[in-house]
Amino acid sequence: MDLKLDHHSKDGIEIVDVEGEIDVYTAPRLRELLIELVNSRFYQLVVNMEKVEFLDSTGLGVLVGGLKRVRAHDGSLDLVCTQERILKIFRITGLTKVFGIHDTVDEAIAARRAEK
Amino acid sequence: MSQAITEQDAEMATVELSFTALPAHVRTARLVATAVARRSGVDESLLDEVRLAVGEACSRAVEGHQLYCPAEPVRLALTEAAGRFEVEVTDTCAPAGRWPGGPARAEGDSAAGGRAEGDRARGPSDSGTAGSSVADPRIGAGLGIAVIEGLADDVEIRETADGTSIRMSWPLAEAAR
Q1: Is the pLDDT of residue A13 over 90?
Q2: Would you call B157 an interface residue with chain A, using a CB distance cutoff of 8 Å?
Q3: In chain A, pLDDT over 90 holds for what percent of residues?
Q4: Does some domain include residue B2?
Q5: pLDDT for B5
Q6: Which residues of chain B have pLDDT under 70?
Q7: Residue A34, min C-alpha distance to chain B (Å)
Q8: N or C: which end of chain A has fewer CB within 10 A?
Q9: Which of A2, A23, A24, A90 is the best residue to mutate to test the B interface, defined by the most B CB atoms within 10 Å of its own CB?
């Protein structure tokens, strides 16, 4: 399955919905979207990965790059993911300590609000 | 005579795949590897690991080929032998170690490492623009090897005359042996 991307605002936070496979072929599209959002001054992002079927290290690289970009503007990039097969790659690479990973979009928003 | 045939059979890859070094083909390589692993008898619970590790190895090879030898194909060999499912991804990014994350770089090949650093420094992540087929290669290259080593039951990364070979294997389920 290819990669489907969409985004919308919720409670002042931009939610990025990702569906499909994030790999060396499709990751550049996600990177473009994250760059586009940051350039449009969206610095509070939640990437919803509940429908992601595959994620590799190039996808991780794009997410880390997005995090770096929003942090340059005192922003945030949180993830929503409950799939064990996806969470496993975050654990292997130690990135569970870098990203806020939540069970639902609402939980990610609430966590972000609590930190403000 | 029969002994010779047996040895030959044992060394013969079950499936060999050679593909142009394009990111789009990495998915095909993952699908083929997963299908052959399943057919060979790798336990269902390990198939996600096979899929991800093969994808990482192929992505790494494709990135290297795109930098150094875009006309050369990447080779994937899938073999079932001695109760294990073995995958070998071979690149031809010679000289060995030139590509980031390769063994020679880890051993301190400063000249090769410098070249790789230079290439990666021109990546899209630094320019802030999009368009390259390789996503944030500075991060992906190192992480890819880390992911492979974290996933595969057994990993061997070695230099060849032409580039690098990553060999990984997983056990076959008892019923398949």
Answers
A1: yes
A2: no
A3: 91
A4: no
A5: 54
A6: 1-13, 95-141, 175-177
A7: 10
A8: C
A9: A24
Compute the average pLDDT of residues A55-77: 96
Across the interface, do B147 and A56 touch by the CB < 8 Å criterion?
Answer: yes
**DSSP result, B101-126:** T-HHHHTT-HHHHHHHHHHHHTSHHH
Q: Residue B6 domain-assigned?
A: no
Q: Looking at the domain assignment, is residue B19 inside a domain?
A: yes
First to last CA, chain B: 24
Q: What is the CATH number of the domain that holds B165?
A: 3.30.565.10
Structural domain count of chain B: 1
What pLDDT does B7 receive? 55
Cα distances (Å, whole numbers) of residue A70 to A14, A65, A106, B84, B125: 12, 9, 20, 45, 13
Question: Which residues does chain B have within 8 Å of residue A64's beta carbon, measured at their own beta carbons?
Answer: 136, 139
Q: 0.95 cut: is pTM over it? A: no
Predicted complex ipTM? 0.87
Pull the structure tokens for residue B158: 């070695």
Q: Which domains does chain A have, with CATH numbers?
A: 4-115 (3.30.750.24)
Tokens of B176: 């398949």
Residue B3 lies in a domain: no
